[in-house]
Amino acid sequence: MSYELREHTADVAVEATADSLGAVFAAVADGMAAAMTAETPDAGSRFTFEERAESQEALLFDYLDRLIYERDVRNVLPVDHDAAVREADGEWVVEASARGVPLNEVHARDLKAVTYSEMDLSEREGDGGWHAYVVFDV
């Protein structure tokens, strides 16, 4: 799994690829964290959460929005992401975890929100891997 930060007019974008849907979610989240800070200490503890949505794209949006919520409410920068995505009872579910680095231990740039602008979440032709492109409002 990998990600790249992309320049975007007045915003920042993350482009990611991975072998599975859950891994591409985690790669985008890792890219989001990298957009907020260049260095992360080993501090913090892991937390888990689950999100549900009606589509894969809505689930990716809600997952990333939840990470921003965790940052704002718990005062931590979520890093070292892990995510598993599955379909259950007609909806999509992500079971995820991250390590929450206390914000007072890191110099972090603020990301205001995840956006649907230009969002792409697609299965790659041929190899079964996944591609994601997400723009964040800064």
Describe the structure.
With about 140 residues, this protein is of the alpha+beta class. The protein is built from two helices and eight strands. The protein has helices at about 20-35, 55-75, and strands at about 1-10, 10-20, 45-55, 75-90, 90-100, 115, 120-125, 130-135. Strands 1, 2, 6, 7 and 8 form a five-stranded antiparallel beta sheet that branches. A three-stranded antiparallel beta sheet has the order 3-5-4. Strand 4 (about 75-90) and strand 5 form a beta hairpin. InterPro entries: Archease, Archease_dom, Archease_dom_sf. Belongs to the archease family. One of its GO terms (molecular function) is metal ion binding. This is Archease. Keywords: Calcium, Metal-binding, tRNA processing.
Write the layout of secondary structure elements.
Blueprint: E1 2-8, E2 11-18, H1 21-36, E3 45-53, H2 56-74, E4 76-88, E5 91-102, E6 113-114, E7 120-123, E8 130-137
Antiparallel strand pairs: 1-2, 2-8, 3-5, 4-5, 6-8, 7-8
Helix pairs in contact: 1-2
